[in-house]
Design brief:
The protein is mostly helical. It has helices at 2-6, 38-51, 58-71, 107-115, 121-127, 135-139, 153-162, 186-192, 199-202, 208-217, 220-234. The radius of gyration is 19 Å and the shape is globular.
């Protein structure tokens, strides 16, 4: 959710805003329909408002929650979070597709998408570790009813056993097989076996420089260090401060 927030209008909590009668918010754009945890952010906000009203922004809560959701399994904060962000007052679904990297992006498009936010190739590879979104790779990769040749054949057969056709829009599969409930570097090991689920995953192996980074990140300690640095850089994208924006009283609506 933090990634989806920061890539549209910066880290301003705009992804948390609800749609209104006159505006469809980011939250209801197609790339964001799979997001969850909005109620958790709202509960945290409510508790903070009861203790120190008007002090902690929803944007900061979301950034801290992203850090803590990763850190909880290690019983310690995995990186420092600078606070002081203010909340945005606008949220438009029309801006989401233009800013969130799509799962079918090739390497050039992914690199440009991250560069647009002031992030590096290293950040791209480090932060990429997150059925109808990939079924074209199984059944119609080049428009000729074929399979993506870069996809591991045995993994492709497994996916086909789960997703039967291009029209399957309900079946879900793990993006990180056997490690989807843990925070670790297993994604990169899977990637090197050509088992990246999305075309954008496979794209990370298409240049020597990005593949070298993937090989580095297989090492757990290296991954943790690099992930922490990239998350801090992402959390600083187009931050509102000073008199810009506001401190929302409730994360799902702007102050009246």
């Amino acid at each position: 959710m933090h990634f989806h927030d920061c890539f549209v209008r910066g880290c301003d909590g705009s992804v948390l805003l609800e749609s209104t009668a006159n505006n469809t918010a980011e939250k209801d754009a197609i790339p964001n329909l799979s997001l969850s945890g909005f109620d958790v952010i709202e509960d945290i906000k409510e508790a903070l408002e009861a203790k120190c009203p008007g002090i902690v922004s929803c944007a900061d809560i979301l950034t801290l929650a992203a850090r803590d959701s990763v850190s909880v399994q290690f019983n310690k904060p995995m990186w420092e979070v600078l606070t002081g962000r203010r909340d945005g007052t606008a949220s438009k679904s029309s801006e989401v597709l233009a800013n969130i990297p799509a799962p079918f992006f090739n390497f050039a498009l992914l690199k440009q998408s991250f560069a647009n936010k002031g992030l590096t190739l290293h950040d791209l590879v480090v932060l990429s570790g997150h059925c109808n979104l990939f079924s074209n790779r199984l059944f119609n990769f080049s428009g000729k009813g074929d399979q993506d040749p870069s996809l591991n054949p045995s993994y492709a057969n497994f996916l086909k056993s789960k997703c039967k056709s291009l029209s399957d829009t309900t079946t879900t599969v793990e993006m990180d097989p056997n490690s989807s409930e843990s925070f670790d570097s297993d994604y990169y090991s899977i990637l090197l076996q050509n088992k990246g689920l999305f075309q954008s995953d496979a794209a990370l192996l298409t240049t020597k420089q990005s593949k070298n980074i993937v090989n580095e990140l297989v090492r757990q300690n290296k991954f943790f260090t690099e992930f922490a640095q990239s998350m801090k850089r992402m959390g600083a994208i187009e931050v509102l401060s000073g008199s810009a924006g506001e401190i929302r009283r409730k994360c799902s609506v702007v102050n009246s």
